Amino acid sequence: MALAACHPGNVEAKRLIRFCDAGDPVACNELGQKLLKGEYVLRDEARAATVFQQACDGRVGDGCATLGTMYQSGRGVRRDSTRPPALYKRGCDLSAMNGCTQLGVLYMRGPGVTRDTARALALFQQSCNGSDMPGCAQLGTLYASAENVAQDIAKAADLFQRSCAVKVALGCLGLGRLHALGSGVPRNDSIAMDLFKQACDSSEVAGCFHLGVVHEQGRGIPQNFQRAAELYRGACEDRYAEACYNLALLYQKGAGVYRQPERATAFMRRACEYGYTDACPTRPGAS
User: Is position 211 within any domain?
Assistant: First the structure.
């Protein structure tokens, strides 16, 4: 126990506690990260939120941005969609590029701000220029989708490649989609599958869905309906609407699962509830 107490990690944690208590905002930000992870201190998300607030008040941008994510997810604090925009903006203004990225995501999707794609584009460009690779991946997604911006597949492919190279799941997902389509890069089902798997393994739910499609269609690999059903089920549980829809179709056909019309209907309803309009009834009383 004496040796453990002298471990450099424990010594550093004690130093951060001492300096944060003395009013050092940088130490508070570093301490907050350790409290979130339980790294040489007891994991304590509520206390982490408190010290991130101290860091933010002391003009440490990363503290503001991290506190914003905590309010957005309800981690360690009561969930509050009104707090993150201001915290992300303050973080961004204090040169925390992840704050710029998170604020851009809010402008793309809400809540808490009015949707503004142009503002999101500018924020993603700012964060990407500041070497925040998730911001580059978000920027690539905008250029690939052409959502209120001029489509530029070549630029999207470059941004996805750069971000995926440092294990940003959204970048791997975007690059996988381009390889699956042969858009801006050579069509290659094997590369697409590997990229979707990377995204899925990093908890990017859309990557799991697309990996399910690869298994269902047998694109570059033998068809495996059972594996497709497993992937769709997991993505559906994470409220990915099209995964619920595809799983419903498998239950209708009895592909990879036992044919169960009642389960097909239940998953079809969930797909509609989660926003996939093709799954919604087209007439009163339709299932």
Answer: no
